[in-house]
Amino acid sequence: MITIVVAASVALNAAVDPATVSRGAVDTQTPATECIQFRSPEKLPVGTPFRAALLNGLEFRLSADWGLSVGPAGEPEIDYLWVVSPPLRTAPHRVIGPGYGLTARESAQIERPLRFVLTRADYDAARAAIDLASADETMKLLNRLGRGRLSIFIIDYQVRDVAGGDVFDWITFKGEACVPRG
Hints:
Strands 2, 3, 4, 8, 9 and 10 form a six-stranded antiparallel sheet that branches. Strands 1-5-6-7 form a four-stranded mixed sheet, with no helix packed on it. About 25% of the residues are buried. Helix 3 (about 120-130) packs antiparallel against helix 4 (about 135-145). The chain is α+β, with helices and mostly antiparallel strands. The chain contains four helices and ten strands; from the N terminus they run ββαβββββαβααββ. It has one domain (about 5-180). The chain has helices spanning about 20, 105-110, 120-130, 135-145; strands at about 5, 10-15, 35-40, 45, 50-55, 60, 70, 115, 150-160, 165-180.
């Protein structure tokens, strides 16, 4: 069974430059963002996929193996998150659970500030940027293309010890996805 949640709240956030706050001004150079919050069901059992509608026709996905992705609703094979959320190969921040040298308990504690592209054209450009010879040029392009922001916070969980480590029985998490307005 896949759990699908339509987010209940949308918030508008304007980026504020700390240097201008003391003068009482808001930075008008940084575009405002639209954000949407979502939350898993209480005690989501291990191996249970989850989806939540985001803005701009996108959705957040937690796969059955608890990998994180963002992509167009109705196109589950496309992942707009991985291409601009390095590291690209060793990626414990894009998976919930033991792996990449982390226990389940450690995985529950890591921060997950992730980014995603907003369109198929940006996805294609990011894929091409990964193959550039210059790592500096690749990172510049990925930073420019990854305009969506996703944060996932595990707020409760239960683990059990097994031979060689630990595994989740269930988790409860909340998330927020933000995209530029307009």
